[in-house]
Amino acid sequence: MKGSRVAKRYARALLDLADKGTEEQWGAELERLAAIVESPDLIDRLTSPELSEQSRQEAMAKIAERLNLSFPVRSFAVVIARHRRIRDLSAIAEAYRDLLDHAMGRARATITFAVLPSDAEVKRVVGGLESIAKLKIIPTVKVDAALLGGVTAELGGRIYDGSLTTRLEEAKRRLAG
User: Fold this and answer.
1) Which residues, in sequence order, are bridge partners of residue 142?
2) How far apart are CA 53 and CA 39, in angstroms?
3) Which residue of 46, 56, 134, 164 could cross-link 149, Cys pair, CB 3.0 to 4.6 Å?
């Protein structure tokens, strides 16, 4: 469902309703709602054909209320239920985050180190990515010992690989002929 047009339409509608300064809050609320609703037991119950439309909408309203979501996001949750898009909620939340990042001049990157990095190392890699992308980078830092050393970064579907594993593989290919 990632990147579906339906998810983007719903996300765009919610983002268009957001007042200046509430966009981040609404995005966080939408992600919290999606995380709760996407649990296997709950999603199956909420999308069950045995559940009446009225009950489905009331259930979504109660979940949103218990999560203490703002009124617009609560209303949006009911609209999602009414239009039978509950299974799309995670994709909608992801599309909302992507649209908001684009509007705010940001990009998200996954940075993988061989060992736990210092703050300075993360800052240096983020700075390099920001100069490449010309955007503010929001990093997700991971550790993968299989890299042996160095770092890899995934940004906008591109992989920047500065890992020792890759360099050793390249040297091995060159030596092999």
Assistant:
1) 112
2) 20
3) 164
**pLDDT in tens for each of the 177 residues of the chain?**
445 899 999 999 999 999 889 999 999 999 999 999 999 889 999 999 999 999 999 999 999 999 999 999 999 999 999 999 999 999 999 999 999 999 999 999 999 999 999 999 999 999 999 999 999 999 999 999 888 888 999 998 899 998 888 888 888 888 886
Distance CA 147, CA 113 (A): 7
| Residues forming beta bridges with residue 151, ordered by sequence position | 113, 162
Whole-prediction pTM? 0.80
Q: Residue 149 in contact with residue 138, Cβ under 8 Å?
A: no
Supply 108's token pair.
């998200």
